[in-house]
Input
Amino acid sequence: MSALLEVTGLAVEIGQGRDARRVVDGVDLRVDAGECLGVVGESGSGKSLTMRAVIGLLPRSARVAAGDLRFVGADGELAAYDAADLRGHGIAMVFQEPMTALNPTRRVGDQIADGVIAGRRERSSRKQAREIAIGLMTEVGIPDPATRARAYPHELSGGLRQRVMIAMALSGNPRLLICDEPTTALDVTVQDQILGLLDRLRVDRRLGLLFVTHDLGVIAQVSQRIAVMYDGRIVEHGRTAEVLADPQHPYTASLRAAAAAIEGDRSDAPSSPAEVP
Amino acid sequence: MSANLDADRQTRRSRPRGRAKLVAGAIIVGLFVLAGIFAPLVAPHDPLEQDLLNRLADPSAAHLIGTDALGRDTLSRIIFAIRVDLRVGILCALLPMLLGTVIGALAGFYGGFADTVVTRLIDLVQSFPVLVFFLALLGAMGMARPFLFLGPGELPVIIVFVCVGWIVYARLIRGEILRVRELEYVQAARAGGLSDRRVLVRHVLPNVLNQTLVYVVLDVGLAILALATLSFLGLGIPAPTPEWGAMVAENRARFADQWWLVVAPGLALSVLGVGLALVGDGLDDMLKQS
Output
């Protein structure tokens, strides 16, 4: 397989000097073209920071302390990269909450067109960029895209907003798409449509997907491989079906049991130390 | 019940209040601006023309606010003073705003070394005795002469204001940018490959400039007050150019007999100040609502 992204021994630290805390430690990841890697873990497990390290958008207080990040180049070989050069046309990102990830004061078509212009080597006119933006909106399944392009984010439904967000992420024609809980803010039926859309894009564009979520049901639906993160480390890694059927690590097992408990079978729910009276 | 009604009345009243303030302030400031621009047409006399046979005249049809110790028409001097005071006031607010916005934006957006330098510079300027700096400019460098379109004494005041005033804007913009740059849609724009400059111009600055606008308007009023104070102390605009603070100073010995010579320029200063404050306040209210 042709690898798009390879991460080895990634460590992320928060804070300076003696106060520095290692919140991601020794993470290895690999995503191939046309493949979806699911990263699961609870809040604070370091999965979001790992993604932000990959795309070079760590918050100010955090920094990459160790590890190699390599991305496929024009020659097909993996090489160390400067994230600022790759954002948009190499790596793009779909955020969790499209309402806050879209600028409320700008028309959605213009925001997609911004990315189109930024992602091109040659200069393209605003008008061309708008047309490409409308093409992208069609591709992500927005009905009547020419009209919707002139709408502001608050005028669209949650599902349409997330589609706009995806069109924006595709505007630079990236090879790897990081999806940070892209369906958590949506209701279930819309969630299903968005997952279907991402899966179709993966196949059509041979897009690599790095899909972060805490929802095992979602991960089972979209990913081929899965990496389970706990306390800043990857504790289990393998083919999705195998990991879910036969978890090796106790954390994965308890995660699966908890998910099963919510599905309805409460008999094997992990006992909670703090019972709600 | 009554508390409910009160709350209701308050929300209802607070809605048009921003606009009302803005309109009232704009009318006041607008009248001053027009009077200043058309001063030669509006003023009944030449502000510098002396009439030594008619010194310290009481208010009359010919001299509505009387004449001063040199027989100059007070009303005309007040009207011509608008030109000096507004010009200096506007430049003293606008130039520091431009400088401060650029510096603050660079520091806030790029952080790191640029931020450290700017923060230290702000500390430095703040610990500097402003008045000493001002006297040095004025005296040692002999800068009280006219310069370009500026009248005598205006340049050093403006230089001092620029050197000191940018701090407020740099701080404001830097702080706002630190807040805004962590907003998710700014991150999303960066994730989409937009260059730093484009993110700054498209997504960050429009967010930040509202507050700056309010500050600038309020600062014009403060700058005019400062100019009048300096002139009152004999450090600002030299005689015989009409300026409100200088007029108060020139005539303060006559306060017992010809009080209007002191009160009228002071009143002009206050009314313009109130007008500017109303505009700034009204803008603030309206921007907060939207």
